[in-house]
C-alpha cells in the first residue's frame, strides 16, 4: 500500500492541468493575483526592506525577481523576501481547515521557480494548485495539535506545499519529489510567541525559501527518508518520528484526512479559503465588518463612541 508521502507526491507530479476542475483553476488565479497585490504593498514594509537588504548582502544568481523592487537574486532568496512581503500587513488569505495562510507561502515560493524555468501560465497554475493542496492536506491532518503545541504552521505545512510546487515546476520525478518533501520537513519551524511581531512574516518567507531550497537539493540527488510525513508505528528509534509525531506528538494527528478523496476534493475548489479585507488576525475579520455595518446603519461617528467592547470566538 502506498504511504501518505508517496500519495501526496504522486498527486503533485501526475495531476494533469486539463484534469483540474474549473473552479480550482479560477481560485488559483485569484489566489495568486491577490497575493501579488499584497506582496506589492508589503514590499515597502520594514520587515521586507530588512529582508531585501540581507538578500543584497548574501548575493546570488540573479535568476528571479523580487516583487516591488528591481533587484534580481536566487530563487530561494527571492522566495524569502516575497514571502515576508506577502504577510507583512496581514492581508493575505486564510484556510481554516489547514490552520494556515497557504497562498502567502506557496505563491511567493512558486513564482521565482516558475520565472527561472520559464514556465507557462498553465504550468504555474497547476503547480500552485498542487502545492496548495499538499500544504492544506498536511495541515488538515495535523490540526489542531500542531497549532496547540505552539507551532505557527506556515513555515511547516507551507514549506511542504512550496516543495511540491517547485518539484512540479522543475520536472522532478516521484522519488526526487519525495526527497524534496523530506528536506522541506526537516527545515520546518515557526514559534507562535513570535506572532504579533515581524516574526510572523518571517515564518512565511522562511517557509517559501525552505520549499525552494528543498527542491533544488532534491534535483541534485540529495537523499533523505522517502516517507517523511508518516513515522513507523511503534518504532523504537529515529524512524518513529516523521513529520506528524515530531510536531504534533505521538498519536495527535490524522493521516487519513491527508489523503481522503485525494485528486477529487480540492481545497481551492471548496470556497473555504477566506480573503481578509482588514490588516489583522483572522478571527477579528467578521467582527470588524459587523462594527463597520453597525456604524454605517446607525450613522455613528467617532464623537458618538466612548468605548467598544467586542468578543470573538477562539480560533482554536
Q: What's the total helix number?
A: 13
Radius of gyration: 19 Å
Percent of residues in β-strands: under 5%
Largest sheet: 2 strands, antiparallel
Distance between the termini: 34 Å
CATH architecture of the largest domain: Orthogonal Bundle
Please report the first level of CATH classification, the CATH class of the largest domain: Mainly Alpha
CATH H-tier superfamily of the largest domain? 2-methylcitrate dehydratase PrpD
Structural classification = mainly alpha
Number of domains: 2
Indicate the mean pLDDT: 93
Question: What layout of secondary structure does this protein have?
Answer:
Elements: H1 4-14, H2 22-42, H3 46-58, E1 64-65, E2 72-73, H4 75-87, H5 103-117, H6 121-142, H7 145-148, H8 157-169, H9 174-185, H10 199-219, H11 243-248, H12 255-259, H13 285-297
Antiparallel strand pairs: 1-2
List descriptors:
53% helix; globular; 316 residues; 13 helices; mainly alpha; two-stranded antiparallel sheet; single chain; 2-methylcitrate dehydratase PrpD
Question: Would you write up a description of this structure?
Answer:
With 316 residues, this protein is an all-alpha fold. The protein contains 13 helices and 2 strands; from the N terminus they run H-H-H-E-E-H-H-H-H-H-H-H-H-H-H. The chain has helices at residues 4-14, 22-42, 46-58, 75-87, 103-117, 121-142, 145-148, 157-169, 174-185, 199-219, 243-248, 255-259, 285-297, and strands spanning 64-65, 72-73. A two-stranded antiparallel sheet has the order 1-2. Strand 1 and strand 2 (72-73) form a beta hairpin. The longest helix is centred in the middle third of the chain and has 22 residues, at 121-142.
Amino acid at each position: 500500500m502506498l504511504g501518505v508521502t508517496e500519495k501526496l507526491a504522486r498527486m503533485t507530479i501526475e495531476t494533469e492541468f486539463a484534469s483540474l476542475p474549473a473552479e480550482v483553476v479560477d481560485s488559483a488565479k485569484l489566489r495568486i493575483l491577490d497575493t501579488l497585490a499584497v506582496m506589492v504593498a508589503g514590499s515597502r514594509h520594514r520587515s521586507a526592506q530588512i529582508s531585501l537588504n540581507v538578500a543584497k548582502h548574501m548575493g546570488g544568481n540573479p535568476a528571479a525577481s523580487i516583487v516591488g523592487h528591481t533587484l534580481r537574486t536566487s530563487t530561494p532568496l527571492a522566495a524569502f523576501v516575497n514571502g515576508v512581503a506577502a504577510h507583512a500587513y496581514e492581508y493575505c488569505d486564510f484556510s481554516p481547515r489547514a490552520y494556515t495562510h497557504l497562498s502567502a507561502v506557496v505563491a511567493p515560493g512558486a513564482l521565482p521557480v516558475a520565472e527561472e524555468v520559464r514556465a507557462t501560465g498553465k504550468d504555474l497554475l497547476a503547480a500552485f494548485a498542487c502545492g496548495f493542496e499538499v500544504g492544506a492536506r498536511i495541515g488538515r491532518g495535523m490540526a489542531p495539535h500542531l497549532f496547540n503545541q505552539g507551532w505557527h504552521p506556515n513555515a511547516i505545512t507551507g514549506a511542504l506545499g512550496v516543495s511540491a510546487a517547485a518539484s512540479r515546476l522543475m520536472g522532478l520525478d516521484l522519488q526526487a519529489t519525495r526527497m524534496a518533501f523530506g528536506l522541506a520537513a526537516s527545515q520546518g519551524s515557526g514559534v507562535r510567541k513570535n506572532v504579533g511581531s515581524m516574526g510572523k512574516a518571517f515564518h512565511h518567507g522562511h517557509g517559501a525559501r525552505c520549499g525552494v531550497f528543498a527542491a533544488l537539493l532534491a534535483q541534485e540527488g540529495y537523499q533523505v527518508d522517502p516517507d517523511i510525513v508518516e513515522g513507523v508505528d511503534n518504532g523504537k528509534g529515529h524512524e518513529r518520528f516523521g513529520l506528524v509525531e515530531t510536531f504534533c506528538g505521538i498519536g495527535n494527528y490524522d493521516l487519513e484526512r491527508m489523503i481522503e478523496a485525494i485528486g477529487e476534493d480540492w481545497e481551492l475548489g471548496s470556497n473555504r479559503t477566506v480573503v481578509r479585507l482588514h490588516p489583522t488576525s483572522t478571527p477579528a475579520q467578521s467582527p470588524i465588518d459587523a462594527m463597520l455595518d453597525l456604524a454605517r446603519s446607525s450613522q455613528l461617528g467617532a464623537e458618538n463612541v466612548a468605548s467598544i467592547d467586542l468578543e470573538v470566538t477562539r480560533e482554536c
